[in-house]
Input
Amino acid sequence: MVNLAIVGYGNVGRGVLAAIPRHPDMRLAAIFTRRPEVVRAEASDIPVFRLDEDPPGNINIDVAILCGGSKEDVPMQGPMFARRYSTVDSFDTHARIPEYFREMDETARRHGNVAIISAGWDPGIFSLERVLGNAFLPRSAGYTFWGPGVSQGHSDAARKVPGVLDARSYTYPIDDAIKAVREGKTPSFSRRQMHRRVVYVVARDGADKEAIRKAIAEMPHYFADYDTEVIFISRREMAEKHATYPHGGFVLTSGETAKSERAILEYRCQLASNPGFTGSVLVACARAAYRLRCSGQKGAFTMLDVPPALYSPHSPETLRRDYM
Amino acid sequence: MVNLAIVGYGNVGRGVLAAIPRHPDMRLAAIFTRRPEVVRAEASDIPVFRLDEDPPGNINIDVAILCGGSKEDVPMQGPMFARRYSTVDSFDTHARIPEYFREMDETARRHGNVAIISAGWDPGIFSLERVLGNAFLPRSAGYTFWGPGVSQGHSDAARKVPGVLDARSYTYPIDDAIKAVREGKTPSFSRRQMHRRVVYVVARDGADKEAIRKAIAEMPHYFADYDTEVIFISRREMAEKHATYPHGGFVLTSGETAKSERAILEYRCQLASNPGFTGSVLVACARAAYRLRCSGQKGAFTMLDVPPALYSPHSPETLRRDYM
Output
């Protein structure tokens, strides 16, 4: 059995908690959180600790799964936990991955641990599929489409517009763009040609809806580059119809293996629960981190560096017999 | 530069030859073949050797790519070449992979080489996707669909029916079955529910076409378990419309991350040239074999055992910056 700790008990932490019983060789040993009393009330049969607390000697932890946010939690908690345990995280600020990798590599190496960073579906599985596509089809064109699904960052941005009580932003890939790539075309798309956005908004009573619509649709970086539809709904409709976090997307690679011999590779995921699936991937990555550590490795890894068999509960012999 | 040898100059060997110039760090050093004179006439600027010949000292070979058939060529040539070089092959007799792995592992280990076996798209990439799907979604249902594409084994079987001069067998996945899985259903399909076959046949003049149709459609193992359509065409139409080897397929994994939270993963490839794409994958695998060898590893590997970054021409830093 591999002993896991959950660090940070939000949506992804709950996803990890839900995933663990489905992985027969994994058990939860502890939860670390900023709010031990709150979490203890909810998860009464699991030892709960403050982030900086050292659990008593009878609590054995092989891998700590960092489930906090990438903006403030993981950059601080990553190095903090990589000193004590092997770690897995889903750090997803793409531009800062090289820098975070270096820091985690140094810390984990110094303390003899393994740290798998930026795991999940994107970054993570999608990164893997982008690299495989480019390696198997050199000089190809690669495309990543996201959605249909809820974008947390865009929901947060819309929620900050004056007069907005609550907001949920959905990303949709443009079907015709995917169709064109699937049919062998390799266009250079603008942002608007690949994705559109729909934002459901609960407005304050008496708020200027037209002003809200304009403020969201024209917000630079987040919405201005896309066709964005703003739909006003009631608080009740928000609670009833937009309480879950579905997501998904596509990685497409289109190239030629010889003159006019096209090859098109496509990876797609459809996820009813983004944090639920991320949690399940993180648990499989914890298995890989544990095995890497047991085989004497140390330092930081991304999913690009991990032999895929290490994610599987099955033995190499079973995989060769039943999955090849 | 990594120095490659092609072993066996058939369709896959030609695919490897076409792929090499697209991989900037790869060069062809030699071709090994049973028919050196024939190959020399076609590939005049490349040193050509008999299978058992030892090239002169000025010819440096890092990885030998075995491109022969899985029935007779690779089982014999694999151990023969793994004594001399690191190797890559596309051995695809699924039931015999465990046994072939053991033999290649022993030979490669003894001689300090790396042997990546059973690479390509299936076995190979599809194996990888089956394992990842099962690891990320435990207790899920996995489905592999093949086609649309030409099945060599089924074409050969149809060609042996008396009265048949030439035959080409196409496999088609059943669209409704794929649709059901994509929509979240997890049925247990019969073979007939997953695939159908269409066989184009050139019959000898005066042959009994009804007898040929019956002999093909009712052939056990190959066609009897599927809805099989037999279409008679002229020799000329066969040459004009069925000279290429397209193929492709789907790997689908459908599971739950929590009660009624479904997650569906899908990998798909569409290949205008099956041997062309296989060749390109084998070249990327040769890069991985070379790097594994350089890092001190030895023995047999499948694509399940290879860290994906090793297939890529890009450095780990570039991959973390541009592909994560």
